[in-house]
Specification:
elongated; 2 domains; alpha/beta; eight-stranded mixed β-sheet; 276 residues
């Protein structure tokens, strides 16, 4: 569990900030138990001022004595970071990496003595406590370690465990998915403007419509098709709109987007440069 354990964050970017804020907000840790390293003085100052955590430009200092190490750096620099950390790591801490496309086997290569390795894919709504994170576990991860990681990511939303081979699909669906939804909200709002609504009103209606529909799926537990059919009255406005979506292959387009993003994630995972 997290309470009372020393946690070192390597990298103090947006995702680290979200996780730190979640831990403190939920009372799962205290500023005195959290150390963050970041090369940018501006980020260190922001995290220290807003969250009260200890900050340092030294990655080795951040992990020294840590029970849990959270790697929040870009995948393209993680090789160098792991080589730097190797001499300073405590004896077999829990190591959690949120670097997209960076496999556990590669972490193990740089840290051969480490066994408690967890790879995670959180998404950007974690910034407001509404994220979803998929985690993959190395064989050396205990049930207690799994619950520790679950607590960390549930401080900013919800968490699930999946096989590592599925993380490319997770990246494409929930990692990239917020961007797809933002595009849909924008398009719905544009449609409202086309129909005569003021821009601010159209955007508010579009965003709340998407949020409300998603909440119905989660809370009622019914298939989206069932909920859709309840809105579509015979000969009404909704079925007329749905007909246009079917003609223009909305569902196939979204499926193709997830498929293409999955393939791209797989490609980038085999190269030195990675991008979400």
């Amino acid at each position: 569990m997290l309470t009372g354990r020393q946690i070192g964050f390597v990298g103090g970017g947006n995702m680290a900030e979200s996780l730190l804020a979640g831990l403190l907000r939920k009372g799962l840790s205290s500023p005195g138990r959290l150390v963050v390293s970041d090369p940018l003085a501006s980020r260190r100052e922001l995290l220290s001022r807003n969250l009260g955590v200890s900050v340092t430009p030294d990655n080795q200092a951040a992990v020294r004595g840590a029970d849990i190490v959270v790697l929040c750096v870009e995948p393209q620099v993680l090789d160098d970071v792991l080589r730097e950390l190797a001499p300073s790591l405590p004896s077999d801490p829990v190591i959690i990496s949120v670097a997209a496309g960076y496999p556990l086997s590669r972490v193990q290569h740089h840290l051969p003595s480490a066994t408690r390795l967890i790879r995670a894919m959180p998404n950007t709504p974690s910034a407001i406590g509404e994220g979803v994170t998929a985690m993959s576990l190395a064989p050396g991860v205990s049930s207690e370690d799994r619950e520790t990681a679950r607590q960390l990511f549930e401080s900013v939303g919800m968490a699930v465990v999946v096989e590592e081979r599925l993380l490319d699909a997770v990246t494409a669906l929930s990692g990239s998915g917020p961007a797809y939804v933002f595009a849909m909200i924008e398009a719905l709002a544009d449609g409202g403007v086309l129909a005569g609504l003021p821009r601010s009103t159209a955007q508010l209606l579009a965003a709340h419509t998407v949020a409300g529909a998603a909440s119905m799926v989660l809370e009622q537990g019914e298939h989206p098709a069932v909920l859709k059919d309840r809105v579509a009255s015979p000969g009404g406005t909704t079925i007329a709109g749905l007909y246009q979506l079917e003609q223009r292959k909305l569902r196939a387009t979204l499926m193709s987007a997830v498929e293409a993003a999955t393939q791209r994630s797989q490609e980038l995972g085999k190269t030195e440069n990675h991008h979400l």
